[in-house]
Amino acid sequence: MFSPQLSKKIASVSLSESTISNLVRLAIEEDLAGGIDITSQATVSSDQVSKAEFCNRSAGIISGVLVAAAVLEYCGVTEYELLISDGDFLPENSKLISVKGNTRSILLAERTALNFLGRLSGISTLTNTWVKEVSEYKVKIRDTRKTTPGYRELEKYAVRMGGGTNHRMSLSDAALIKDNHVLAAGGVVPAFNEVLAKYPTLPIEIEIDTITQLKEIMNLKVDLAMLDNMSPEQCREAAQLVAGKFKLEASGGITLANAKAYGASGVDYLAIGALTHSATNLDIGLDFLGEK
What we know:
Elements: H1 4-12, H2 17-32, H3 38-43, E1 49-56, E2 60-61, H4 65-74, E3 79-82, E4 89-90, E5 94-102, H5 103-133, E6 140-142, H6 152-161, E7 175-177, H7 179-185, H8 188-198, E8 204-208, H9 211-216, E9 224-228, H10 232-242, E10 247-251, H11 259-263, E11 269-271, H12 274-277, E12 284-291
Parallel strand pairs: 6-11, 7-8, 8-9, 9-10, 10-11
Antiparallel strand pairs: 1-5, 1-12, 2-4, 3-5
Helix pairs in contact: 2-4, 4-5, 5-6, 7-8
């Protein structure tokens, strides 16, 4: 569907061309709703050509330029130049993409391209804020599955562009034994043993609520323990107890205000659902430069 150059760039950052293609198609179909862009049809001649530039109104980490390019190509705009790369920090009013093409086609692509750019850049920018906050510690900022349905691959990509790391992409990647699984299995140890017996080669993470539960799993071959809603002091105690035997992830109750305290506790990861469920779109716009 896309040009060979764009397809190569998409593959180079480990994104799925089919995922992007499907999302772009759905977005444009939603915008047109089976009809046409009546305003552009009425006010813009069919052969009018324009130049335009995508620019960020606010400073931030940019993500989504490849998706925006996919939107442009889908709408028939093939003459464009990507002026920056995903993951770049840009001051306000920087140029991201320059475009030249049929004016109606650019207008059709405009809002969908901006939706992707704003959403993904907002996630990257917020992630980078968290990463910088704990940069003096070994801890890594990690996302969750609290993503927009259908957009997980892109949103987790945006987290990476902001300097964060990804948790599992899907339920089939790894086991995460949570409190409801523990309750159903009759305890932490039985739950772990059942998962290990059925999926011996997959990573296993266990959510625990107390130091007592942590002590119960010390002799199990877990890959990671999630410390659920524990204070920084409890996380420090957990890190001292585990002493590197397996990884630790703090989750719940973590804010930018207390992130450093959690980072200093010695855990390996901070699970931050807000990276994807509470990010504010970065303000990005499209400026027309006039006709050809």
